[in-house]
Amino acid sequence: MAEVMDYDEVLERFDPVLGLEVHVELNTNTKMFCGCANVFGGEPNTHVCPVCLGMPGALPAVNGKAVESAMRIGLALNCEIAEWCRFARKNYFYPDMPKNFQTSQYDEPIAFNGYLDVELDDGSTYRVDIERAHMEEDTGKSLHVGGATGRIHGADYSLLDYNRAGVPLIEIVTKPLVGTGARAPEVARAYVAALRDLLRGLDVSDVRMDQGSLRCDANVSLMPKGATEFGTRTETKNVNSLRSVERAVRYEMTRHAAVLASGGTIRQETRHFDESTATTRAGRAKETAEDYRYFPEPDLVPIAPSREWVEELRASLPEPPWVRRKHLQEDWGLTDLELRDLVNADALELVAATVDAGAKPDDARSWWVSYLSQQAKTLNQELAELPITPAQVARVAALVADGSLTNKLARAVVDGVLAGEGEPDEVVEKRGLKVVSDDSALTAAIDEALAAQPDVAEKIRSGKVAAAGAIVGAVMKATKGQADAKRVRELIIERCG
To answer: What are the Asn/Gln amidotransferase domain coordinates in residue numbering (predicted)?
Structure first.
C-alpha cells in the first residue's frame, strides 16, 4: 500500500485542486447513433447492430432526443448553448470500443461556460464552474474472468459485451476547483450529489451510480503553499457512489502529499478506486488530447439548434430540486431533519406523488420512509423499484383514514400489493381484511371474552378501566386483528357499566 500523509499535515503544506468529469447515460429509447434499444442489462450482445458494432459501411444518424436532453442539461447548468457544433472522432484502441474510435465532441461542445451552486453540509454554498457538457457514446463492457481482482491483470480470459456500446452519454466537465481546502472531498461529494438530483429532476437519466448510468472521474492535484502553478494530476476513473467520490479525493490528496514530501514526482495517470480498502491503484499513463488524434466526424452533419428551440427548452425546465425541496418542506411543515431523512431515503418524489394522489403528507411520509423502506431492504431493491405505486399507497392511506382498515391490516394490504395480488381494494376483498365494524359482532366477541375472564370483567366493573386491555386483546385475537381496537374498548366499558 502506498505511503500517505496525515490529512491535517496535507492541508498545512498543500492546496488541493480538483477537476470532476461526470458521465451521464441518457434514458432515450434508442442508442446515440443507431436504432438499437437503450436498456440496461439483457443477454450479452443482443442489443447491437452494424452501426454500434462498427461494421464497414455502416453509417450513423444522430438521436434527436439525445440532443434535446443535452441542451436541457446545459441550460440547467447555466451554460451557453452552441449555435453550431459538431462531432469528432476520438481515436484509440481498446477491446470494448468496437470501432477503435469513439464518436464524441472535442473543441466544439454543445454546452459550455456554466456553473452549479452546491450547498455543503453546514448550509454554505460553493460555486462549481462548468467548463463544458458534450455529447458522446458509451463503450462496451469487458468481463475479465479468473484472477483475484476482476481486472485484466491475472485474468484467465476476457469476455466482451457490446450492448452498452453506443449508449448516449453526456460528459460534464468542471473547470479547476480551487480554494476548497480541507473541504475538497466534501465539495466533490456535494457536487456529484447535486448534479445527480438535478439530472433526475430533468428526467434525462435514471442516474443509477450502482448501474453505471452516472459515473465520476475525479482529478486531483496538489500545489505547495504559495505556489501559483497547478501540480500534476491523477484521474481516478469511474467512481460509482457518492461516498466513494469523497473517499477517493481524500485518499489521493494524502497519497500525492506523501510522494511530493519525499522528493518524488506525481505520474499523470488514471487510477482505480478500491471500495474495500478506500485506496486507489495505478491504471495507465494518461493520454493527452494530441494522443487521441481528434478529427471531425465525416459521417455526421453539424448540429445548429435554433435560438427559438433553445428558449423553448429553457422555458420548459422544472424548478431545481433544492428549490422544490424548500417548497415541499414549507407546504408539509417538515423539520430540516425530516426533510434530510426523506432525501437520504430517495423518498421525496415518491411522497410528493402520493400526496398528489390524495394522501396527507404525514401519512405518505410514514408509509414510504418506514414500512416500505423496510420492505425495499428486505427485497434488496431500490425504494422506487418496489411494485407499488404512489396512487396505491394513497388508496391504502385512505382506507385507514375512513376506518376500513387498521394500521396492521393496512400493512397486510400493502404486502398483498407487493406480492402482485392486485389493487388495494382487490387485496382487501381477496384476503378478507376489512375492519369488523358491526357493533353486534363485536359485542358478541366481547361478551365471550368477558365470560372467559370473569376476574378481569370484575376489575373493569369496579372502576379499574386499564384492565380492559386484556379483553381488547382477546377480541382482537378472535377477530384476527380486524376489529377497531378503539371501538372495542368503548364497547367493553359500556358492557361493564
So the answer is: 349-496
C-alpha cell at 301: 452533419
CA–CA–CA angle 403, 407, 493 (5° rounding): 65
Which fold is adopted by the domain 439-495? Arc Repressor Mutant, subunit A (1.10.10)
Secondary structure E strands in 249-351: 269-274, 279-285, 295-296
Among the residue ranges 24-28, 256-260, 296-300, 474-478, the one predicted with the least confidence is: 474-478
| Whether the predicted model's global pTM rises above the 0.70 cut | yes
Q: Domain locations in the chain?
A: 7-309, 319-431, 439-495
- What does the block give as the cell for 230? 497547478
Better-scored residue on pLDDT, 176 or 474: 176
Distances (CA, A) of 312 to 85, 122, 386: 19, 36, 35
User: What would the pLDDT profile of 41-56 be if each residue is shown by its tens digit?
Assistant: 889 999 999 999 999 9
Beta bridge partners of 23: 171, 215
Among 407, 408, 434, 431, residue whose Cα is nearest residue 419: 431
Question: Within 10 Å of residue 497's Cβ, how many Cβ atoms?
Answer: 7
